[in-house]
Amino acid sequence: MRGQLKYFMVFVLAVSLLFSVIGCGNGADTGDEMGEEGEETLPEESGEKIFIIARGTDAKTLDCGYSYHEGEIDLAYHFYDGLVKFKDETLEIEPALALDWSGSEDGLVWTFNLREGVKFHDGTDFNAEAVEFSFMRILDESHPYYGLGDQGLAYMDWLLGDAIKEVRAVDDYVVEIELNDVFGPFMTYMAIYSQYIVSPTAVAEYGEDYFKNPVGTGPFKFVEWKRDEYVTMAAFEDYWGEKPEIDTLIWKVVPDESTRLMELQSGNVHAIKSISPAQLETIQNDANLELLQVAGSNLFYAAINHKAEPFDDVRVRQAVMHAVDFDALVDSVYEGLGTRAINPMPPTIFGFNDGIEPYAYDPEKAKELLAEAGYPDGFTMDLHVFAESRSYVGRPVDAAEIFKSDLSQVGIDANVVVNEWGTHRDLVRNYDHSIGFLGWYDVPHPNNFLNLMLLRAVNNQYENEELNELSDKALATFDRSEQEAHYREMQVISHRDVVVVPVAHSDYTAVVLKDINGFELDPLGNVIARRVSF
């Protein structure tokens, strides 16, 4: 009976949300509604299957080429498709809009044979010209739709802008991508959401408003976006792949974690994304709920300024590693929803060096190293941290306070400096820090973590020619075993020199009503609702 009540309440909530769109369609000016398909949202019959997910953050754009934040990625997975995709369980590359692909002997030209008969949500045909358009609008500054709507970072450009020389349609269903140089992570990067394919017709029609009127080939089409409240999707009846069993998918924004859980328990939503450790026991004891928990492809770490005394001395950096009880810190801050980090990349990604032994918690060893470095009485420093919860750490300030407490036991007096995220990020990027906490989550390839942490000196001013050479060798081959050997050696050097301080990997979580089938989290923490049924 309780389950029936939940579905009745969810349906009532969904209908109330969908009725609100009618006001927009009839000319009511709310100032916040986005999209032009509002009148299609009212269920035609009481049997419509509506699925509602509550999550903590909204999107800033629905344009996959500019999607970057967590609130946008889940949506892109359902609006769009790429040429290739990750297998949901293993992150291996498999076909999507491309049936197959091959590289030239020199590795510079990649040919993709495309599916025929695929439609965009606006009824236009998917073809090679659409692929060329989708890439070149981001990569070619002379393209008429380059920089559309001033949306900021185009993540495709950040990932592949230096790698891709040209994308060209050879015929209707064959496309070639030419690279400037051999680029080892190329096929992995091709599966990322920013490389998904958009309708050229829709981009031309909506122009700068395309970011709020997305048109892809995915299993769900856009219905409405009410900023900071919800995004509504409808199953795409002409989808080329496995068709959804639900009719409507609603992504409801509920910023407060406690409220999200109450919404689920009271039957107002079917699922929620992300929980806090404090909620874990409640969820595990509720027979009506199922917890989804996967090891996170992310990293919470401390960036060290290698040109700031005394951290220019490797012995001081090693002393920090011995001074902090990282296992206890992770147990306290993550409470069962995270694991200690050993290397500057997650163990969920190929190339992780599991042969590296973590630094042991040994305050006496830390004191010895400090004395050898000329600091027998320790020193004073600032420890910078951001205030907000992020996907890789729920309580960053608590983590900093534990760090401070452990450092004090070896004579290091750390003053914890807390700033909001934007201020903190700029401070660390400008090297106005000794140690500053940061985090990263993204593409499941070692280059995306190790390049950022070890080579770019974005946050640490660390320079090592041996690391640069190893990275160049890894990038210059498509052979996975060769890449792995180079990346494993890079981690050895990073561990020895303490380039950064790896702290933790946060687990990805979601909770769903127990009688829902097909609701999943992939290894990147993305919600997969394509196969939901009930």
- Estimate the global geometry from the Cα principal axes: globular
Note poorly predicted spans. 1-9, 19-31, 36-45
CATH class of the largest domain: Alpha Beta
DSSP helix count?
A: 16
List the helices and strands and how they pair.
Elements: H1 2-25, E1 33-34, E2 50-55, H2 70-79, E3 84-86, E4 93-95, E5 98-103, E6 109-114, H3 128-139, H4 155-160, E7 164-171, E8 174-179, H5 186-190, H6 200-206, E9 220-226, E10 230-235, E11 248-253, H7 257-265, E12 271-273, H8 280-284, E13 289-294, E14 298-304, H9 314-323, H10 326-334, E15 338-340, H11 363-372, E16 379-386, H12 396-408, E17 412-419, H13 421-429, E18 435-441, H14 446-455, H15 465-475, H16 480-497, E19 500-506, E20 508-513, E21 520-521, E22 527-528
Parallel strand pairs: 2-11, 2-12, 16-17, 16-18
Antiparallel strand pairs: 1-9, 3-4, 5-6, 6-8, 7-8, 9-10, 10-11, 12-20, 13-20, 14-18, 14-19, 15-19, 21-22
List keywords for this structure.
D-Maltodextrin-Binding Protein, domain 2; eight-stranded mixed beta sheet; alpha+beta; six-stranded mixed beta sheet; Dipeptide-binding Protein, domain 3; 3 domains; disordered N terminus; globular; Dipeptide-binding Protein, domain 1
Report on this model:
The protein is α+β, with helices and mostly antiparallel strands and 534 residues long. It has 3 domains: 1-76 and 219-295 and 507-534, D-Maltodextrin-Binding Protein, domain 2 (3-Layer(aba) Sandwich); 80-209, Dipeptide-binding Protein, domain 1; 298-505, Dipeptide-binding Protein, domain 3 (Roll), CATH 3.10.105. The chain is 31% helix and 22% strand. It has 16 helices and 22 strands. The radius of gyration is 24 Å and the shape is globular. It starts with a helix and ends in a 6-residue tail after the last strand. Mean pLDDT is 91; it is low at 1-9, 19-31 and 36-45.
